[in-house]
Hints:
alpha/beta; 2 domains
Amino acid sequence: MSTLYLIPxxxxxxxxxxxxxxxxxxxxxxxxxxxxxAKTARHFIKSLGPAKPLQEMxxxxxxxxxxxxxxxxxxxxxxxxxxFLEAVxxxxxxxxxxxxxxxxxxxxxxxxxxxxxxxxxxxxxLVGPSSLLLALMASGMNGQRFSFHGYLxxxxxxxxxxxxxxxNQSRQHDQTQLFIETPYRSQMVLDVALETLQPNTSFxxxxxxxxxxxxxxxxxxxxxxxxxxxxxxxxEKLPCVFLVYVAK
Length: 248
């Protein structure tokens, strides 16, 4: 019987030390991988010193813009599902990798996991870094109730409306609200958040988690503004996790 291993990938450059040795041992023995991006996956597997040459392995990419629960047939151009089915029929184990962090959590891969359950394939999640959980742990906000929203609107007026919505949701449900942003829009998110959110609302951000340039800061909006009056801060062009919380 085949097993689908959900394999975490470092979320920071030179972050192989964040992947436990037992996870590395499992990954280096596999030969079929379902991945978000083949080039990144090959680089990661090569760094582990795999048992077989990369040329003898399968790296099948998940279709772009895959949504969890999306219904589509297994077609020739869906190489991820095709490769998974072929591996299972051959009795081979399979590894699922995202670009960074944990597959299926703020990353694609959920459809492959759902297919594995449907087929009776054993699913094994492996331990490793998740930017969302690391940011939440370090935020000082509510870790008992939280909600993740992916990406918010890219334009300033719509982003402001999204932030007000998250603020209201946090107030109503006593939840920490998390979202992510691309490297080039992180500074804009900070600027709009400080213009939009209420003074006592807690606002946090986390960049380069587990990396050499790790930056984590969580403060009420009014304290953010006070600090930024004294010190100029320009965010690095790195992926960022943002958090919003209105304390009861």
